[in-house]
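Rotation project, supervised by the postdoc (A.L.). Task for the rotation student: set up a whole-complex structure prediction and record inputs and outputs verbatim in this book. Inputs entered:
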Amino acid sequence: MQIDENSAEPLYHQIETQLRSLIISGVIAEGTLLPSIREFAGDLKCSVITVRRVYQDLENEGLLRTRQGTGTFVSNVGEGARENYKRDAVTKALETAVDVAHSVQCTREELVELFKEIVERKYKGQE
Amino acid sequence: MAQLAIELRNVSKKRRNKTIGPLNLGLPKGHIIALVGQNGSGKSTLLQMLLQLTHPEEGEILWFDKAHSEGIPIEVRQTMAYVPENSLTEENHWSAEEAAAFRSLWYPQWDQPYFQELMHTFEVPRNIKLGKMSKGERRKFEIAATLAAKPQLLLLDEPSSGLDPFAWKAMIEALRKYMDQHDATILISTHIVDEVRRLADYIVLMHKGQLLGMADKDSLFGAWSEVWVNVADQEELAELATELPGTLNHTMDGKGVASFVTGQFEQIEKRLHHMGVKVVKSRVLELDEILGLWTQGYRPILVDDKKGD
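Outputs recorded:
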């Protein structure tokens, strides 16, 4: 996890966003035991209040579950949720790109052309 | 709000040349609270009052929801442990083992294997009298003996003073681990910013005998930023300052660049963008700078503010 101390974004938000994406993208597998609240707070140099809040939020979203006395585990995210998350993340990024294009008066044709070029370049070699 | 380990209600105490208080404070159970403030701000007096080593003239102190005006009963004392600013001379003629044996009589929860483990981790020398130890070595014994008593409330008065960096890290780890395994509360007075960063959940600031309040540590970090902008000269900076309410410490920082401090970076950044002023760079203030602003009256959001929501 990367905490940017120079960011105006609140600490709890930074941690929550990153942990959520690690869980949904499957980087942290289902059933993984997360560090205790105090341990995690120590690693991130933040307070237990912040970590408790993050665990609570993600538990409410169904991404984590706490077993009394044992700790906090990653829940089953499900294929549907993972697909939705992927779709949402990419849609959001593309929307930002289109907004930028708009603000510099890029035409629809130019934009589509550019998009194809980029996809071509980035996906080459991978297939 | 969580249960309180300690509560102070309008507590005040006269000292030779100043009055401490009135102090109002609640220490939430299960947390680490850093007590910060300059020398002579009253931190040690506060800790001593929590042990009834000294008594307030006015107000009331509650330990786990009970006032003990007739003296803290032994069964409550047995759940409290203290690392004083200066170690007790009474134990000077004892070795660490002898002092531990004596303390174990007072603390029914005393954990001897844990004590040995901590002594080993901290590398405290054996078979020499406590009075012959260096300040750091004695400190390490005190911390080990405090944890081995398995207290629910730890009052630590600058526990890390005299510790080398290795011992300091070991202490931080030991305190953290203890908190992970026990639902204890730690009040720790310290001057070391990194100690606050690594350990604390809440920060309590004392200044000239007054409590300036308790803040959630993470809400303090990132609360203030220093911003550098392009401006031509002093005159233009003065003009800009009037357009940016709530900003402080406007100074020219070399040719064509000025800096100032703000508690609302996002809003100010938008405003600057709107005005066509270029932000060169920005950084968030360090804890010591934030505490400095706090003592000057620029207080952060306090825990008590949130209660009213």
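Student's summary: Chain B has a mean pLDDT of 92.
Supervisor addendum: Chain B touches chain A at residues 30-31, 172, 176, 179-180, 197-202, 216-219, 221-222, 225, 265-266, 282-284 (CB under 8 Å).
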